[in-house]
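seq:
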Amino acid sequence: MSTKDLVLELIKSMPETVTLEDIMAELYFRLKVDSGLKDLDADRFLEHAEVKRRLSRWLS
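struct:
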């Protein structure tokens, strides 16, 4: 399915009262989720312990 078809299906599944902002927010959300899933599949992520270690510098 093409990107255009996916976007059209998304819009069709939304209520008639949907706003442009609602559509854009949903598209952005799906873009970020898909991007994150691709990163996971490519082993581009940090382990929980590493995230805690990095954040500890900011939070102290």
